[in-house]
Amino acid sequence: MSPTVLLLFIIGYFVLLILVSYFTSKNSSDNATFFTANRKSKWWLVAFGLIGTALSGVTFISVPGEVGSASGAQFRYFQFVLGNAAGYIVVATVLLPLYYRMHLISIYEVIERTLGKVSHKTAAAIFLLSRTIGSAFRLYLVAIVLQRFIFDAMHVPFWLTIVICLALIWGYTFKGGLKTIIITDTLQTVFLVASVFLSIYFICNSLHVNLFSAFETIKQSGYSKIFFLDDFVTSKFHITKQFLGGLFVTIGMFGLDQDLMQKNLSCKNIWDAQKNMYTFTVIFVIVNLFFLSVGALLYVYAAAKGIPVPVDAITHKPRTDYLFPEIALNHFGGLPAVVFMLGLTAATFATTDSALTALTTSFCVDFLGFDKEENSQRSRASGVGIRHRVHIGFSLLILIVILLFNAINDASVVSAIFKVATFTYGPLIGLYAFVLFVPHRTVADRATPLVCILAPASCFFLDKYSTQLLGGYVFAEELIIVNGLLTFLGLLIISKRRQAVNESVA
Questions:
Q1: Which domains does the chain have, with CATH numbers?
Q2: Residue 42 contacts by C-beta under 8 Å, 6 or more apart in sequence?
Q3: Three-class DSSP category at 484
Q4: pTM for this structure?
């Protein structure tokens, strides 16, 4: 497939997004629209659009690729997805009622009202750090694919590829913010979901099997094992670790993340927000199952056609996340190539545009005090200009982080950085657990940052030396539980009995 043709389709895709942005923001581009979409979002639009946000470009290429990896992962990721589903139910029934009762713009205002200003800014800073690194990492991995299959042929340098991507995102989000993203994410989810189903169709067609017999092909492929029940101590794939990890990672990275909760808070009321969450959960589970099915079919196709797993140009090791783009772009071509590229682009930009809006919102509200009464005049007048500058600032910050990843140029180091970033959600779980379960106590506010640094640092060393310290035990995603528990215990140590319980949380 010609890189020029692929690029033209991507340009057409972004022209469509910019047109949507124009029509959704032409009558209103104030801060209320940008931050909360005036709390008038339709719950079913939010539910469908969240799929595009929750499933990044990394999911799009890495989940199918992992199915046939040398680790023997197969469908083990579905155990994690089931934990995610349980986590979404907890978010809908526990956290959403709290946020709506307190009528929040930034969810970290909960911490300020209960624990103090330093604790509040600590929680917000954790989000800003985690989401900046996570979003940069996701965009970086997908930009490598765009660079390899499109921009290298045009001799466009990597840094310019990233600048173009961020400029396009900024172009369709800077005015309408969340109001625009609710619509564009819904559109991008359509492309994402369509690309998954069409990819299954194209692979089945190439293998000369129909869609109904494809399920039997997957079952007989040797890649479809879902539940791993053996070797609890040393296996990361055990169902207990995967399910609990999925549950608590969802609570931390969804329920306590401004990016993903901001859309829920744009619904008219708590009932609409909960309907959105329940609907989203069902769709999320189904779509992930189809992603895994794509992975099994890709490996069946690769084996039938003698296609090896692509090798990383730097480490010379197999890169399973290159298999999907390799087959779609170099072996199928034509319409399948366009479908793949649009699906990958939709998954990536639905995540990054949402993150930029949330980072801007959190910084403006949590650090610049846009929601405070004393700053209301600035928020209405010069606040829009300040918000634009903050939005540009975070775009530049993500650019710098991506270029640092590229300079490191070591997949293992970059993966380690991403893993460290996920550790930071553990302190958020600990902070909110303290607010919810011991409302009769308050903390020494200035000591909170120390607790939130020591907990993930301790987990980092525990993860590294767990086999020596814990009789061969190997941590998977359930390490976030330990992280949250250490934070909770640390806060308990620096706490004292509250004189009067805050009625808004109790």
A1: 3-425 (1.20.1730.10)
A2: none
A3: helix
A4: 0.83
